[in-house]
Amino acid sequence: MSRTTIIVLVALGAAVAGFAFSSAAGRLRGADATPDASVAAGPQSADLGWRETFGPAGERLVFTVDWLEVTRRGWRARIGIENESSVAYEVNDPRVTLDRAFGLMLFSTGDAEELEGLNESGELPEPRPATKFSPALPALLEPRASWEGTMSASGALVARSWARVVFGTLVAAGKPPDELPERVVWITDHAYRLRR
């Protein structure tokens, strides 16, 4: 998979303030609509152990997802970011809108080609933004520093959809090395299929 297509430098769609469970179900239905397409995922947990990197050794960002849990009232995930580059990145930038927030994106398949195609056409699904972080996200992630914690939000997720974790937007506080862009939104290569 081409890493340049995973680093999303396009707007991720409309604001998510009005994002509703039913609109996500409609998007996921596609041409193969089934009665189960709008069923909420039931409580479940998954040990994921995902570790993904962007950039060469010495000038890279590392994204981790330890686990994902769906509860009766929402979801939560244990995530981490490590800045192995020579520039600091703003993480909790107040200028960044909710359409580029940390959270989840739901897809109809776990296929990497689907992710690439939707990214290239500017048709990525709206993210389900996290509303709570414990501990709080840092305002600035210094070079060689890391953050690890839990993010969560309320609201149902669509059963049988594929969840990917979104990290973003990270904004370089200064000129980034040639190997890294100024703005980074990371959508995980890995995906987890939500059960009923």
Plain-language structure description:
The protein has three helices and twelve strands; from the N terminus they run H-H-E-E-E-E-E-H-E-E-E-E-E-E-E. It has about 200 residues and is mainly β. Strands 4, 5, 6, 8, 10, 11 and 12 form a seven-stranded antiparallel β-sheet that branches.
Task: Give a summary of the structure in a few sentences.
The protein is built from 3 helices and 12 strands; from the N terminus they run ααβββββαβββββββ. With 196 residues, the chain is mainly β. The longest helix has 9 residues, at 21-29.
N-C termini distance: 29 Å
C-alpha-based Rg, rounded: 16 Å
Specify the structural class. Answer: mainly beta
Report the helical percentage.
Answer: 10-25%
Just name the CATH architecture. Answer: Sandwich
Average of pLDDT: 82
Total separate domains: 1
If helices are DSSP runs of H or I spanning 4 or more residues, what is the number of helices? 3
Secondary-structure topology with pairs:
Blueprint: H1 3-6, H2 21-29, E1 44-54, E2 60-70, E3 74-84, E4 89-90, E5 103-107, H3 112-120, E6 128-129, E7 132-134, E8 140-141, E9 146-154, E10 162-172, E11 183-187, E12 192-193
Antiparallel strand pairs: 1-2, 2-3, 3-9, 4-8, 4-10, 5-6, 5-10, 7-9, 10-11, 10-12
